[in-house]
Design a protein that fits this description.
Strand order of the largest sheet: 7-6-8-13-14
Distance between the termini: 40 Å
Order of helices and strands: HHEEEEEHHEEEEEEEEE
Number of domains: 1
Shape: globular
Strand content: 15-25%
Largest sheet: 5 strands, antiparallel
CATH topology: Creatine Amidinohydrolase
CATH architecture: Alpha-Beta Complex
Number of strands: 14
CATH class: Alpha Beta
Length: 273
């Protein structure tokens, strides 16, 4: 069942979203050459506890994982793109790190992700990250009241394909609100003017993720970490978004992060860590 949220409830989600956005921005700054992934994980645990928030990942046990997750972050490095288990790994120069987190405050959840390069970036990695960010902004712009869910999916896929990347259809965005994962599923590719109507009060996590040279994935033996099937680099961007009568409202926008607009796919302007 899909629950449409009131303006007051969206406001409560926005409180959580602000915290998630601020912490993600902070974690992006913590990530650096020589930093252990577990240091980033424990930094996030401290911040969540200080805020009185709850991690949506801790004890998360879906059908595909070997749960419970028992971490507050997904930290995915290089060819890992989703659900990366924090572990004893020291970041190296040029590593591409995706950080994904979801938290709840007073019963209302928000979910967001970003990808950064630590140290010296490869232009191809920056371009891949930019593609996910541009696809995310296109998906957000398409989340207009009265539109269709397929408009969001089509906008994401159009940007990805314009950059020359293929889209995996197994994992995508999702509804969010009282829990981290609610209906509907939000695919990263689709057909415009198809699917459910986007009514004010709908809250969704939009999350394009891409592999550099494939749309196939594989799972690590841990049952969680998802990697590109061919070992190519990956990137992931995500925001929690509310559909309102006035248009889409991003609830997890990070402080100081500019709103990106689609550009020439041949150019790259994505930041590095």
């Amino acid at each position: 069942m899909i629950e449409l949220k009131s303006a007051e409830e969206i406001g409560r989600m926005a409180v959580t979203g602000q915290f998630v956005g601020e912490l993600l921005a902070e974690l992006g700054g913590v990530a650096a050459v020589g930093v252990n992934l577990m240091d980033i994980e424990h930094h996030a645990r401290r911040r969540i506890a200080e805020r009185g928030a709850e991690s949506c990942y801790w004890d998360y046990a879906p059908s595909f994982g070997r749960g419970p997750f028992r971490n507050v972050l997904c930290l995915s490095v290089n060819d890992a793109v989703l659900h990366g288990l924090p572990h004893d790994y020291v970041l190296r120069d040029g590593d591409l790190l995706s950080i994904d987190m979801a938290a709840a405050i007073d019963g209302w959840a928000a979910d967001s992700a970003l990808s950064v390069v630590v140290g010296s970036p490869d232009p191809a990695d920056l371009r891949l990250i930019e593609a996910t960010e541009m696809a995310l902004e296109a998906g957000i712009a398409a989340a207009q009241p009265g539109g269709r869910l397929g408009d969001v999916s089509a906008a994401i896929g159009e940007v990805a394909h314009a950059y020359g990347y293929r889209v995996n259809g197994e994992f995508g965005g999702h509804g969010i609100g009282r829990t981290m994962h609610e209906a509907p599923h939000v695919p990263n590719s689709g057909r415009p003017r198809r699917g459910m109507r986007l009514d004010p009060g709908l809250t969704i996590a939009i999350e394009p993720w891409l592999c550099q040279s494939t749309d196939k994935i594989k799972f690590d033996g841990d049952g969680w970490t998802i990697r590109s099937a061919d070992g190519s680099r990956t990137a992931h961007s995500e925001h929690t978004v509310a559909v309102t009568a006035a248009g889409p409202q991003v609830l997890t926008r990070r402080p100081g992060a500019p709103v990106t607009t689609p550009s020439d796919p041949g150019e790259s302007r994505t930041r590095k860590a």
